[in-house]
Amino acid sequence: MRGGPEVGNLTYLTKKFDLKKDIQFNTRIQSTRFQEDSKSWLLYDSTGGTYTCRYFFTAMGILNEPTLPNIPGVHDYKGEAWHTARWPDEGANLDGKRVAIIGTGATAIQIIQEIARRPEEMQDIRERYPEIFRQCLDSYSCFVHVSDIRRVFDMEEADLLKHWEALYALPGFANVLGVSGDIYTNREANKLYSNFHFNKIRQRVNDPNIAEKLIPKNHGFGTCRVALENGYYKVLNQQNVHLVDLTENPIERITNKGIKTLEKAFEFDVIIYATGFDAVTGSFRAVDFQGIGGA
Known about the structure:
alpha/beta, FAD/NAD(P)-binding domain, 10 strands, Phenylacetone monooxygenase, 10 helices, Signal recognition particle alu RNA binding heterodimer, srp9/1, NADP, N,N-dimethylaniline monooxygenase activity, three-stranded parallel beta sheet
C-alpha cells in the first residue's frame, strides 16, 4: 500500500509546470542567519550545506512535525512502525499482517477504511469532475454544497428527515455544509441533528457495544472537527478488525512484540501511529531562526 492519491496529484503538477528543476529534495534546513551586511539570508542544512537568498519564505505548514504518543516503550518495538505522516516511500505491504493503528482522528479513520478494503476511485466520479468544479465555482464558499436557509424547527419532521437522509447519502461535506445554519447556533437543533447521526452509527455498526463506544458523549455534531468517512463504520463489522477503547482499557506500554494494555497483551507485525502533530509551532521550533541582531 503506497501513499494516497495526493502524492500522484503533486507529481502530476510538478511535471505539468516543470517545477522539479527548481526544487531540491531530501534536504532539511536546520538553521538560518540573517546577514545584515549583505541584507541576505544564510541557510544551513543537516549535512552542512549552505545556501544564500535575498528573500526567505517559511512555507512549512502548521502540520509538519509528527508526534508520537507519550507511552513507555515506544522505541522498544522490534517490528515495523511509522507515523502516518512518515509513510514508507516504497509503500507498505500489509497483506496478512497483524496491524495496530493508534488514534481515532481524521487520519486514522481514512487509513483504517483504506487498509481494510483498498478501493479504487470510481470511474463515474472522474467523469463528473467538470460538473463538480462548476458547482464549486457557483457556490459562495467554493464547496459543492450550499447550506439550507430554512431553520430546523420551521420544517415538518418528515421533510426534515428526508432532507437529512439525502445529505447523508451524498459524499464530501454534504452533511456538514448542506444543513440549516441554526444547527450550529441552536442547542436543541444541534441535539436533534446529533441524534440523527448517532442513530446512523447504531444502524451501521452491528455490535451495539461497539456502536456506543463510537458515539461521542461530550460534544454535539460540528462542535469538534467532523471526520469524513465512506466505509469506516462498515469496516468495524469485519471479523479481522477489533476496536480497543483506550478510555476503558488504556495502553500501559509498547513492548518489543506489540502493545500491552491494562487488560491484555497484543502482538502485532506493524504499528501505525495516527497520533497527530506538534501543530502550528512545531515546524518553527525544528529550525533555529536568527534574524536581525540574532533575534
